[in-house]
């Protein structure tokens, strides 16, 4: 029996890899194209693009692994049926449940890994990705250059006389007018540079003068060094544990939908075994050529059911989907496989 189990799992692993690698590659290309759109807002070099891609790898794996496994199980059983090996097993008195028990172990391992990926790795990867994007977006605000036109710098209007092309500038002027229009502030500095301190982007001014004037007062100061950073701090997301991430109120509605959908997607390798066996174990003369249609309909039915229940009954969708899908697919499995073989 162990030899037979090994033979089934060896066939499964070969087909799984042949399906997973192309799906993973296609999904990676889609995510890379999506990340390329970030360059309209922020500047990214090759190393930073690779860093962003690493952050989305857990998400790519999550959406490719369960479908790859489900398709691989169906095609493995179909391959064994096509080569009459399934018929030989049943002729020797092996029950169809033996095949499902053999496939249950890798299905459970994969479901556990998917749950860990989603519940633990996803918060870390999502937070790191968002913080990196926010940081680069904040840094992009310092993408300044010398020109005859000024720059918007928070509440300041900024003019740069000379750009040294190394994030340092000469002959810098800043102007600000309060909302009421009662007071105006003008700052001039011979030199300026961009500095980063504890995830805060600053403009460091050196050797300059500041003027503040209104109808009643006029004042002047001279300074050796001044920092302008009040309005250009980078907002970073923080959390201590994955549980804290899921319980936080930030994007609560979106996270609720994601939690329900992805819990059920993580269970697809287990919940899909009955229907995969019903699709894959066939009389080859009668069912040839229909497996791909059944695969598409099964995947579509599962995913659409998850979305429908998620919207209508929210968290109750998890037990409802597990129970209803198990009963329906077991009934199909019993009628199409157990009673026939």
What would your notes on this structure say?
The chain has two domains: 240 residues, no CATH class; 78 residues, no CATH class. The two termini are 19 Å apart. A hairpin with a 5-residue loop joins strand 3 and strand 4. Helix 6 packs parallel to helix 11 and helix 10 packs antiparallel against helix 11. The chain is an alpha+beta fold and 341 residues long.
The spatial strand order of the largest sheet comes to: 1-2-3-4-5-6
Mean pLDDT score, rounded?
82
Question: Percent of residues in beta strands?
Answer: 15-25%
Gap between N and C termini:
19 Å
Tally of domains: 2
The dominant shape is elongated
Largest sheet: 6 strands, antiparallel
Count of individual helical segments: 11
Based on secondary structure, the structural category is alpha+beta
Portion of residues within helices: 55-70%
Low-confidence region ranges:
none
Encode the helix/strand succession as letters: HHHHEEEEEEHHHHHHH
Give me the secondary-structure topology.
Elements: H1 2-36, H2 46-82, H3 85-91, H4 96-140, E1 151-153, E2 156-163, E3 168-177, E4 183-197, E5 200-214, E6 218-228, H5 242-247, H6 252-266, H7 268-271, H8 273-280, H9 284-287, H10 291-313, H11 317-338
Antiparallel strand pairs: 1-2, 2-3, 3-4, 4-5, 5-6
Helix pairs in contact: 1-2, 2-4, 2-8, 4-6, 6-10, 6-11, 8-10, 8-11, 10-11
